[in-house]
Design brief:
- The protein is an alpha/beta fold and about 210 residues long.
- It contains eight helices and seven strands; from the N terminus they run αααβαβαβαβαβαββ.
- The model has no long low-confidence stretch (mean pLDDT about 100).
- The structure holds S-adenosylmethionine.
């Protein structure tokens, strides 16, 4: 058994038949745009359902693929809001179109802006914060996210493995990801684990 076999197997286990999600996956492949894959998407959906999350703040939403999985979870939890936040107007517009076609826009609010600043200035607490922005910003984002999560809320951080680069000492982006991971795992406010799905998903619950 090797890493690729396991990852392919995890992908095969997720059999969604949503044509818009499939179109988004094809667009990501065609344009080489880094979305989470369907195994991570379904994992986010499952976690948000288990925690009965009604408010999600996404940091780095792209054209809305991960947003779609969170919005489906919020919808199926009885309603709420997912904040789609990205600094690129075109991506925000693309996301509006995809999510509208999925009937999910009643559950999504769109903000074009820098994600850490937007989180700092947006009022309220969140049941889940999903972190997928530029990797150098992860430590700063974790510090802000900790303050804005409800107790019992979830912090989910993508790219926790950086395709193995976290095991080296050269890549400043990987060093920042490792620092953010340590901040979460060594903080008694969180109970955390790293799920080795795709590029590694750090999942933490704020317990105090
Ligand atoms: C990895 S992609 C997001 C993919 C998305 N989470 C998904 O799986 O569908 C990250 C996106 O966030 C944008 N981004 C990176 N850092 C950001 C920041 N600090 N604030 C807002 N957007 C950011 C990038 O330009 C890119 O469009």
């Amino acid at each position: 058994m090797n890493w690729h076999q396991v990852q392919n197997y995890l992908l095969q286990l997720v059999q969604h038949d949503d044509p818009v999600l499939t179109e988004m996956e094809a667009l990501a492949r065609k344009t080489n745009f880094p979305i989470v894959d369907r195994a991570v998407g379904q994992c986010c959906y499952l976690l948000a359902r288990l925690a009965k999350v009604r408010s999600v703040f996404e940091m780095g939403s792209g054209f809305g693929y991960s947003t779609a999985w969170f919005a489906m979870a919020v919808r199926d939890n009885g309603g709420g809001v997912v904040h789609h936040v990205v600094w690129d107007e075109k991506l925000s517009q693309q996301a509006r179109e995809f999510l509208d076609r999925m009937g999910l826009t009643p559950f999504v609010r769109f903000t074009v802006g820098e994600a850490v600043t937007t989180l700092r200035t947006m009022p309220g607490q969140f049941g889940c914060i999903f972190l997928d922005i530029d990797k150098e910003q992860y430590p700063e984002a974790v510090a802000v996210a900790k303050e804005r999560l409800t107790v019992g809320g979830l912090l989910i951080m993508d790219n926790a493995l950086m395709h193995g680069e976290i095991f080296g000492d050269r890549n400043p982006r990987a060093i920042a990801v490792r620092k953010a991971t340590e901040m979460v795992c060594q903080d008694p406010s969180f109970v955390a684990t790293l799920l080795p799905i795709r590029d590694g998903l750090l999942v933490a619950m704020k317990v105090q």
